[in-house]
Amino acid sequence: MLRLLFVFLLALFGCISPAMAESELQTKIDALPEGGTLKLIDSIYDGEIVINKPITIEGGKNTVIRSCSDQPVVTLKDDGVVLKNLKIEQCSKTSDTTAIYVTGKNHHLENMQIQSNHYGIKLNRASGIVIEKGSITTAGAGNGIDLWESDHNLIQNVHFENVRDGVYLEGSNGNQLRNNKMEKARYGIHLMFCKDVLVQGNQSTHNFTGIMSMQTDGVKIIENEFNVNNDNVNSQGVLLYDAYRTTILRNEISQNRVGLYMESSRENMITHNIISGNFTGIQFKNANQNTIQQNTFIANVNESQAVKSTDNQIKNNYWDAALKLDANRNGISILPYRADPLFLILTKDVPEYQLFFDSPGMIVLQKLIKSPENEIMKDPQPLTDMPLRAAKPSLISILLTVLISTSMIMIGIKLFRLGRNSR
Question: What residue ranges carry the coiled-coil annotation (predicted)?
Fold first, then answer.
């Protein structure tokens, strides 16, 4: 009888081996010497683990560590932990939980596949961290990677989808975001109170906003693609607010509601970008002492709008809507390009006036009511040829631009006629 009971208990505990794996995995981690490597088989490990010494944990093709508690599935402390080829699942229903929580220095996370109901990875005062390859989704509830006062970290080749913000940095300086892809997020990249951050080679698409940089200094935004960020009435490809000394160089900013929006920002350099197929190409508000040159503006419904933003160096851009006359045969038109702020001023107090955008009545009104010369954004030397080899807009984007423009004009004519007939 005792023998049968022993066999029954053994079979019973054998059926719940995933639950036992929690204690077993942490025990193996605790027993591993510093510098050691633990290779995990393709299995599901339930429960949280804490790693506080420099070791390597490497999974197989289908190694899963998961937890539904309110604690991080994986916690990294101290220095030098390496994680490779792991699937991390955080299924907690408690808000603000995270799949991986990182403190310390010089950890390396490679090819992590993270599914979380809230945050993917949180860095708290961590530095020298490398996160590369893999994917993160958070059901739209939390940020993919969240950095708090964490400096000099590298995030590269990670795919973020269905997250609140792809990468969120607050008070975190000297970080690098390279060659990542962000889609279906609020902000693909969200920078707050940061300095000297490099954002290079990323694709941020189908978000509310491609990148937001707020109260930042010395950020470099280079060779990225901010495309099709137009799911919200306030969508932008690039949004700068209270940003200083930002470099925006060689980016493709296309098919957004507003390509580049800048407010209360100074001393920024915007050069050699392609801004195409947006509803509004570039829009300034209280933005001064910025340099905008050698950019290409093509196929935007409205190329530029500016309010209280006149103290800027704007020159040698290509505007496909500008009148061009190259009298000196030097590639520079002698006819300046002008952006009248009247439409923005009118729609600020009465948003319904946006129905009259580019209508015959609005065009006549702009001719009759002259804005003060010091409030008009001007490019005194627009280019007659594109400075960059811009990709030809697709047939769909051309047809969409024509359709939007025609619709706006037809609505304006209809309302104009209704107004006349009601007299």
Answer: none
Which residues make beta-bridge pairs with 187?
A: 165, 209
Instruction: Note the pTM of the prediction, 2 decimals.
Output: 0.83
pLDDT of residue 409: 59
Q: What percentage of the chain's residues is helix, strand, coil (to nearest 5)?
A: 20, 40, 40
Length of the chain, in residues: 423
Q: How far is CA 68 from CA 59, 79, 315, in A?
A: 20, 27, 57
Phi, psi of 86 (to 5 degrees): -120, 145
Q: Which amino acid is at 417?
A: R
- What local confidence, expressed as pLDDT, does residue 322 receive? 85
d(CA 409, CA 57): 62
Whether the Cβ atoms of residue 195 and residue 173 lie closer than 8 Å to each other? yes
Distance between CA atoms of 139 and 90, rounded to whole angstroms?
A: 11
Q: Where are the extended beta strands (E) located within 22-153?
A: 37-39, 44-46, 49-51, 56-58, 64-67, 74-76, 82-90, 98-105, 108-116, 119-127, 130-137, 145-148
- Residue 193 region, left (φ>0) first, then alpha (ψ -120 to 50), else beta? left
Write down the pLDDT at residue 261. 97
CA dist 177 → 53, 360, 419 (Å)? 27, 45, 53
Q: Which two tokens stand for residue 391?
A: 């990709």
Q: Which of 101-115, 155-169, 301-315 has the least mean pLDDT? A: 301-315
